[in-house]
Specification:
- With 529 residues, the protein is an alpha/beta fold.
- It contains 20 helices and 14 strands.
- Strands 2-1-5-3-4 form a 5-stranded mixed β-sheet, sandwiched between helices. Strands 8-7-6-9-10 form a 5-stranded parallel β-sheet, with helices on both faces.
- It binds iron/sulfur cluster (3 copies).
- One iron/sulfur cluster (SF4) binds next to helix 18.
Amino acid sequence: MPRIVIDNRQIEVEPGATILDAARRLGIAIPTLCHFAGHPPATSCMVCVVRVNGEERLVPACATKVADGMLVESETDDVREARRAALELLLSDHVGDCEAPCRSACPAHMDIPQMIRHIAAGNLPDAIRTVKQYIALPAVLGRICPAPCEKACRRGAVDKPVSICLLKRYAADTDSESGRPYLPTCSRRTGRKVAIIGAGPAGLAAAWYLLQDGHSCTIFDDRSKPGGMLRDIDDGRLPAAVLDAEIDAIMRLGADYKRRRRVGREIAFDEIRAAFDAVLIAAGQLQKADAAVFGVEYAEKGLRVDRHTLQTSTAGVFAAGSAVVPSHLAVRAAADGRAAAIAISQYLSGAEVTGEPRAFSIHAGRLGDAELVCFAADAVAEDRMEPAGGAAAGFAADEAFREASRCLHCDCRKKDACALRDHACEYDARPGAHKGERRDFAHDASHPAVIYEPGKCISCGICVRITAAAKEPLGLTFIGRGFGVRVAVPFGRSLADGLQTAARECVAACPTGALAFKNGARAPSSGKD
Ligand code: SF4
Ligand code: SF4
Ligand code: SF4
């Protein structure tokens, strides 16, 4: 039996085994896309390359048989670089959006299409749960947010954007008026204490998420009531009762509000630092002189922080919102508050403070007219709904339902189960590394359950092998050559003709969203998004 060493770990494997087999036995993860267990290697994706002693070039682990005495390295810099290059090549003409354009444009990164699916399904509890996972004050923002998401909404290129902001407000108002507004379950108390300086949107949002992580939160503010600058909106858009109701939920979750306590006047910053395990400065816009009281570095326009973790130069002290970069956008401040909460929780747990994990996302960008017609082929023809009672009244239930049905659901059906996306994230692949023409968006929706999007196909051939093994009368095959090779049903026939028995198996094995179930990640049932 040949013995080999992978990353300094020895293993004995049966003759004929591949490096990939041996690595998997050792629990060493080597990425693959075109590998399909039980079938001959395709070596088309080249993301499984490793370094073998004595070999000048990197070799594909899926196709290289072990030999006695082989020394393999699976994580060297050149291996990582080669994998990244292979992924960037695959992404160079990819046509898809991992996340919908509206979500990418939302400063809080709220899962808008998922919220809309819940509303369309009449599932308001899961709609508000989805919203509040990203936005702590949705009824407030539903009234004052300038809705950058709607400017990016793809439906806007068809007729008018989906009324996302009013839909969010509808979910929030319905929840608020239910008599039993949503309160999330909090983790077990950690015994760690966080001081939040400032009760505006950044501070309140941070408290909402820190409390859910089990930390206690004390908010210091010089006003008598929490809300910060939101209390100064006096043009009638934001009734005080709406603000009070959403703040009440944060207080019921356990926040302690210390009113009329201005740091540097009624209470010293050092006193707060000594009494708490972490501090978040969310005190709104600060001039350099005001900032001195916190003893942290000041940059050009606000406190100096790491832009991703929001940590200041002092350990355990974080800053968010306009205290860092002045902005009139409450949604930006609220998003910052959530980002700070994630970093503070990492700090309090003793983990490395890295902030929210960055997800890889590719964007199809603006679709051409013909592509748009194809993309929106099944869209309902309704005009954008204007609330019968006027914008101030918001949507009634039937209006919200009809507006929700206008959404094109632009996010990828396999966004949570795409190996290409996972590997691209792990290897930090840049989607725009190779400039060039991208393919046109197209899809084949002729099959009753499965949809094929050739723009997301990486020509791994797994589906071709499956349909051949399943003896599909037509199946799928490669068409064209070289970089232009594509997978299609032979003779120009439809997907419904090609996949008569093996559709489910092909969807399960396809490493991307090219073959997906029509409702895919879009089933509006879980609420655990
Ligand atoms: S197939 Fe994968 S990489 Fe492509 S859009 Fe879907 S999730 Fe993103
Ligand atoms: S159509 Fe729906 S999913 Fe697409 S961008 Fe607009 S709101 Fe988002
Ligand atoms: S459609 Fe087939 S060839 Fe294309 S990525 Fe999916 S499994 Fe691979």
